[in-house]
Amino acid sequence: MKKSISLLLSILLIFSLFIVPSAADATYTASDGPLLVSASTTLKSQIALNIYVALPDEVLADDAAYAQFTLNGTATKQYVSEVKGRPETVFEQKVYRFSLDIAPKYMFQKVNFRMFGTVNGGVAALALHSASTDYSSSGFDYSIADYLNERLDKSTDSKMKSLARAMLDYGKAAADYFGITTPSGIEFSQELADLNTSVLDRYRFLLKTANSPAGYNGPGMSITIDSDVAINIYFNFASGTDVSTYDIKIDGEKPTLVNTSSGYCATISGIVARDFGKLITLSVGKDGVVSEATICVLSYSYSLIYSTNHTVTEKEINLAKALYLYYFYTKDYFVGEYTSPYSGLHYEQIDFVTSEAELEQIDAILNNIITTEMSTIEKILTVHDWMVCNIKYNYDNINDPANQYIESALNGCTVCAGYAKLFYAFMVEIGVPCKYITGKAYTSSNPSGESHAWDAIQMDDGNWYYVDVTWDDPGLNGHSDYPNGENLRYKYFIVPASEIGKDHTPEVTLPTPEGTDMSYNNAAIVVKLTQIKAKVDSGELENTAVLLDFDAEYDQLIDTLKSEIIADAAGERSGVVYTVYAINDSLDAQGLLNKIWGDVGQFSADTYFARVKIEILQFIDLPLTLGFRIYPEE
Q1: How much is the pLDDT for 632?
Q2: How far apart are CA 34 and CA 96, in angstroms?
Q3: What count of other Cβ atoms lies within 10 Å of the Cβ of residue 105?
Q4: CA 310 from chain center: how many Å?
Q5: 177, 300, 550, 583: least CB-packed within 10 angstroms?
Q6: Cis peptide before 483 (omega within 30 of 0)
Q7: For residue 275, with 0-12 CB atoms within 10 Å meaning exposed, 13-18 middle and 19 or more buried, which class applies?
Q8: Other C-beta atoms lying within 10 Å of the C-beta of residue 317
Q9: C-alpha distances in angstroms, 400 versus 69, 153, 178, 208, 453?
Q10: Of 302, 327, 305, 300, which is closest to residue 316 (Cα–Cα)?
Q11: Residue 584: which residues within 8 A CB-CB, separation 6 or more?
């Protein structure tokens, strides 16, 4: 398969890490032969060992001159004529770089470097030397591990040190996996030992659609990390299937397929470390049915750890962890962390966001609804309200895997997983610590519980509270959504574990410390009412009534509103539509309408909904005595 697939355009970028020569190194010249000046590594798909040599004019003019790398008894030549047109400067010294690509399993193996050229009419070893050592007789022995250990010892850059440790872990894990002996005393870092493998969950092989075309049995994968890092993608079909009748694409392009014993295989090679986590989209379609899946190098790491086909070995687990750490610290060092334009927060990747397009869409939404003047609770409230008003629950396709992702939520129709994942992404963008929670939720119609997802957020007091946007967006009167937010409520908005625990049970340990009261929920209601009143005062909300369920005043407001609406419906006023904001934990919208209309039977339920829009601002325990009502204008 071509390397030009759009997702992997960056695979040809080369990143070099330079040893800094001592001041004494720069005082030497190459007048007496090739001068060994420096060394580095280059992070391509493989890891290259680079040797920088200052060369005298007679060597540069010698077409027979070459550098020789010897690894495990295999010699590789690189002629001076290949590099002399690409001089580089290291500490004011003109040098030439000679490179050898090395598989990660050989990071700890010594590579012997020597220079050869024309001597007395024949080709022989040249007098290679450095600032302090003559390598003429045996050559210069060096390994990638030597370079990395020097970085750990000499570098003052914390990111450089982290990357060096991750590369050493990767080299040892690869060597152990392939049965290559490493020097005694080499141990994994404590970070690898302590790494929680759940970080790999986001990279698992994901099937995005429930149905597959007839005859297609699904995709599979393997990776190569020996001579090159590559993904091998297998498309499996039933015996006798005419594969040419299927529309097979990888990131929108038709791949070159090779028929193997494991299925039709497409290989994407030359993948650099920073792209190990980039998701590749696979699609197979026929007769209007399309199966989609996403995959990346780290999907293999996930499968190593969570494989159900065999007993996972310690070597496999270590390799899976090492691949992730190598990816993480390479991306951190060379690319830098993503910076949210809304929070200034730096992080490596937003969980559940699978493409730059999704991130751009999330940022565009926030840019439209969030302002820098908003408080934290106002930002969270605004995101919550936007989601309820713009997303509807997909009652028709609850079990469709496509509804489990942010993409479905951004498209406006999803299930609880989509709600919770998009809320998580919004929170990360605005700088609110958030965790995606899964477990069971219980209703009167399903007392045994059903699978559910919601979120935990950490507020300014340092405590964790819970938000369930899905259950704050209930269906009304048989409808799955009211785009204007008539079914908006706050029953599950920034509530403590004791409150959400009445009908939610998580399957994982909840984050601590946990908040214990409803203060943030109450504060959010106050913010919402203040926002509504400001809109009413400005004339933006003209036909609005606000009902507060605190005391007898509530019933008085209901009676007044009922009389006015009846008079309106009877023709005494026309063209009036009431928006009712009702704080009430016991009434749904239909119940509130029934309470407003009472025994007036000449108006149908459809008429009620046509003349009255309702936002239910539900709460548990709001200690307010404030209430206000705005009469509709004629």
Answers
A1: 45
A2: 10
A3: 21
A4: 28
A5: 550
A6: no
A7: buried
A8: 17
A9: 55, 53, 40, 8, 15
A10: 305
A11: 547, 549, 592, 616, 618
d(CA 7, CA 3): 10
Residue 450 has pLDDT above 70, yes or no: yes
CB contact at 8 A, 151 and 164:
yes
Our separate counts of H helices and E strands in the chain read 16, 29
The CA distance from 552 to 533, in Å, is 21
Structure tokens at 79: 């002629």
pLDDT at 137: 85
Phi, psi for 218 (deg, rounded to 5)? 105, 165
| Residue 78, H or E segment | strand 74-79
Share of the chain above pLDDT 90, in %: 41
Q: Give kind and range of the element (H or E) at residue 70.
A: strand 66-71
User: Residue 235: what residue type?
Assistant: F
Separation CA 349–CA 356 (nearest Å): 11
Structure tokens at 346: 């730096």
pLDDT for 508 beyond 80:
no
Mean pLDDT of 581-606: 57
Number of CB atoms found within 10 A of residue 315's CB: 16
Q: What is the spatial distance between Cα 456 and Cα 454, in angstroms, rounded to a whole number?
A: 7
Residue 234 corresponds to which tokens in the numbers above? 């297998």
Q: How far is CA 416 from CA 183, 292, 362, 406, 535, in A?
A: 51, 21, 18, 11, 31
